[in-house]
Design goal:
single chain; about 270 residues; alpha/beta; Rossmann fold; OB fold (Dihydrolipoamide Acetyltransferase, E2P); five-stranded parallel sheet; five-stranded antiparallel sheet; 6 helices; about 25% helix; elongated; WalR-like; DNA-binding; Sig_transdc_resp-reg_receiver; phosphoprotein
Length: about 270
């Protein structure tokens, strides 16, 4: 059912303001008739705004603090067309293989969004029944926990979003040298496309990041530090069964506590 203004309506839910703004700008180009009636920064707000505005569409970020996009979708259910915005890799995207629901992969590109808009317009024009979503949400929940819906094997974090000024960057995890907990934030140190060392703050706690990192490459070496073992140049032993890690190509140093010194016994 269309609004009295003759427009389809939507709610956008994402905890990153810049991503909400970028998606809005692209939707304005791809679908000028669509009216964005509200923005939410988490799943709880998304559900509240959905109940208030009753839009025909919801764009939901899968990863949001508190109530995430999957949990919000369970509450909204089949009362709206849902488009999931996700940073999952192709294994997790197996959950969408049947094509009954739409998704966008971060960073969102205009051509992919335009394809989604075309499908949504077709479904809305036919006023077809909304597809069941319970099975999809179960698969997405498994993917979010690091399990491939098709293979059951862990799928580790591949990209991390960071804001640098007004710019959103997607950092490949394999390029990160180490993570350092700093009060309420985590500092990541990585090599940019020119090989230069860069730093940024992210809000995800270290205890939540660690299970998402591939243990083949990343190891915790201190209660506040996780390092990419492939980035290590050498390790210098210190007093009181501690050590310091030195990295290839720069002078940053990471501490090793006695509880993790065994990782470097053979070095």
């Amino acid at each position: 059912m269309e609004t009295v203004l003759g427009k389809w309506t939507a709610v956008i839910a994402d905890d990153e303001p810049l991503l909400r703004e970028e998606l809005t700008l692209m939707l304005q180009q791809a679908w000028p008739e669509l009216s964005i009636v509200a923005y939410a920064k988490n799943g709880r707000e998304a559900v509240k705004l959905f109940e208030q505005y009753q839009p025909q569409l919801c764009f939901l970020d899968v990863h949001m603090p508190g109530l995430n996009g999957i949990e919000a979708a369970r509450i909204i259910g089949n009362r709206a067309h849902l488009v999931f915005v996700t940073a999952f890799d192709h294994y997790a995207l197996d959950a969408f293989a049947q094509g009954a629901h739409d998704y966008l992969v971060k960073p969102v590109v205009f051509t992919r969004l335009a394809e989604t808009v075309t499908r949504l317009k077709e479904r809305l024009s036919r006023s077809q029944d909304l597809p069941r979503i319970d099975d999809l949400l179960d698969l997405l929940a498994k993917a979010k926990d690091g399990k491939s819906p098709s293979k059951g094997a862990p799928q580790f974090l591949r990209w991390i979003r960071v804001n640098i000024g007004q710019t959103l960057r997607m950092i490949a995890v394999e390029d990160i040298d180490f993570f350092l907990a700093d009060d309420k934030y985590v500092v990541i140190t990585w090599r940019d496309e020119h090989g230069k060392v860069a730093e940024a703050l992210i809000r995800t706690p270290l205890r939540e990041l660690l299970p998402q990192l591939n243990p083949t490459f990343f190891s915790q070496v201190h209660r506040s530090t996780v390092v990419n073992m492939s980035a290590i140049s050498h390790v210098i032993r210190g007093d009181n069964e501690t050590a310091s890690i030195h990295f290839k190509g720069h002078d940053k140093v990471a501490p090793v506590s006695r509880n993790y010194l065994h990782l470097f016994r053979q070095m």
